[in-house]
């Protein structure tokens, strides 16, 4: 088994660094060596940032053990997407994992995850996977859910932590776990932002300095929309759109105010929880962001949607 605990040890704290498993056998051995049954898992594609660190931190607070997966999943990238240029920063990722007290890092290559090449059988996201991100990225959510289910099984985790930044992904994972009876816990973590509001993302490293100035208009639009939440749907949409219209360098793919369970546009009479979501291309980079909110009297922004009874 590859145990790189000495090289990645959290130097200032007297605890061993994460064990790194690259094969199924190494994972089985390292996972088997974790005592108890309370294992939280954070799935990532690497190029870790403070958003990932926060997911790990939340997992660490609540669970006995934390497993991080670092796997750039080819199945969820379209043929014209950025798989080949996606940042790969494994050594820096391990520094973050060591600092956050991760027990085990699973870092497989595609041939380890997909033993026979492309899997013939895949998870289908269904209609919720065809809208918003799914409309721009055909097949993306089937590929995402397929790897998420495989990693759930391989890691044998009991709770799984996902970021609100990827709201549609989070919804689909919750639905898969519920609809297909996975019997594990899914935990949502609020979006972590730069000081000016930009949602952290591994893809932010693609942004040039001027792209970076344009990119902040996405979170500004969401904040403007959320500030109008007491006035109802059209006021929210109008306020958000006004910010984006003033920034023509952000090429908007969609800006929607939808029901958080159905991802359908909410009608004007609707009051309650809603999701304001945006996707735009800035330079060569496609960015997404969203803001959960409550519409109506006393309404306003939420960090994440409170768990609904069906989640338990
Ligand atoms: N800013 C953020 N705040 C909270 N969670 C985040 C944030 N960014 C990513 N995550 C979460 O981290 C997990 C792994 O995401 P991933 O590795 O795709 O990183 P990413 O920053 O979303 O990268 P990319 O933008 O290239 O997709 C997901 O659950 C994702 O929602
Ligand atoms: Mg992502």
Describe the structure.
It is a single chain. Helix 6 crosses helix 7 and helix 8 (209-227) packs antiparallel against helix 9. The chain folds into 2 domains: 19-189, Rossmann fold (3-Layer(aba) Sandwich), CATH 3.40.50; 202-299, 2-Layer Sandwich (Pantoate--beta-alanine Ligase, Chain: A,domain 2). It has helices at residues 24-32, 50-62, 90-99, 110-113, 133-136, 140-155, 167-179, 209-227, 233-245; strands at residues 19-21, 39-44, 65-70, 104-106, 159-163, 185-189, 250-258, 272-282, 285-295, 300-301. Helix content is 32%, strand content 20%. The chain is built from 9 helices and 10 strands. The model is unreliable at 1-7 (pLDDT under 50). It has 312 residues and is of the alpha/beta class. The strands form 2 sheets. The protein has a 6-stranded parallel β-sheet, with helices on both faces. Strands 7-8-9-10 form a 4-stranded antiparallel β-sheet, with helices on one face. The site of adenosine-5'-triphosphate (ATP) has 18 residues, from helix 2 and strand 5. Adenosine-5'-triphosphate binds next to helix 2 and strand 5.
Strand content: 15-25%
In the CATH hierarchy, the third-tier topology of the largest domain is known as: Rossmann fold
The best one-word shape is globular
CATH superfamily of the largest domain: HUPs
Query: What distance separates the N and C termini?
Result: 37 Å
What is the ordering of alpha helices and beta strands? EHEHEHEHHHEHEHHEEEE
The CATH class of the largest domain turns out to be Alpha Beta
**Into how many domains do the coordinates divide?**
2
Biggest sheet, open or closed, and with what strands and sense?
6 strands, parallel
Q: What structural class do the secondary elements suggest?
A: alpha/beta
Give the name of the CATH architecture of the largest domain: 3-Layer(aba) Sandwich
Pathway: Cofactor biosynthesis; (R)-pantothenate biosynthesis; (R)-pantothenate from (R)-pantoate and beta-alanine: step 1/1
GO molecular function, one term: pantoate-beta-alanine ligase activity
Function: Catalyzes the condensation of pantoate with beta-alanine in an ATP-dependent reaction via a pantoyl-adenylate intermediate.
Subunit structure: Homodimer.
């Amino acid at each position: 088994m590859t145990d790189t605990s000495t090289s990645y040890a959290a130097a200032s704290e007297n605890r061993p660094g994460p064990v790194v498993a690259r094969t199924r056998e190494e994972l089985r051995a390292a996972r088997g060596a974790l005592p108890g049954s309370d294992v939280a898992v954070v799935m990532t594609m690497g190029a870790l940032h403070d958003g990932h660190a926060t997911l790990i931190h939340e997992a660490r607070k609540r669970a006995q053990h934390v497993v991080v997966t670092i796997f750039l999943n080819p199945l969820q990238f379209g043929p014209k997407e950025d798989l080949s240029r996606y940042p790969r920063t494994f050594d820096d990722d391990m520094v973050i994992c060591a600092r956050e007290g991760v027990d085990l890092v699973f870092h497989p290559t595609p041939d380890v995850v997909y033993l026979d090449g492309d899997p013939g059988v895949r998870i289908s996201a269904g209609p919720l996977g065809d809208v918003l991100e799914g409309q721009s990225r055909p097949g993306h959510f089937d590929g995402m859910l397929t790897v998420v289910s495989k990693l759930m099984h391989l890691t044998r985790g009991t709770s799984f932590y996902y970021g609100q930044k990827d709201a549609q992904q989070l919804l689909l994972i919750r639905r898969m776990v519920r609809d297909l009876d996975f019997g594990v816990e899914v935990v949502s973590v609020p979006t972590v932002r730069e000081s000016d509001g930009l949602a952290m993302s591994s893809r932010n490293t693609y942004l040039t300095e001027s792209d970076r100035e344009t990119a902040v208009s996405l979170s500004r639009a969401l904040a403007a929309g959320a500030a109008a939440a007491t006035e109802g749907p059209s006021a929210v949409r109008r306020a958000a759109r006004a910010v984006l219209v003033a920034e023509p360098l952000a090429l908007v793919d969609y800006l929607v105010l939808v029901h958080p369970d159905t991802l359908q546009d909410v009608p004007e009479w609707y009051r309650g929880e809603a999701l304001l979501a945006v996707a735009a291309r800035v330079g060569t980079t496609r960015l997404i962001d969203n803001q959960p909110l409550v519409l109506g009297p006393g309404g306003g922004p939420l960090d994440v949607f409170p768990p609904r009874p069906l989640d338990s």
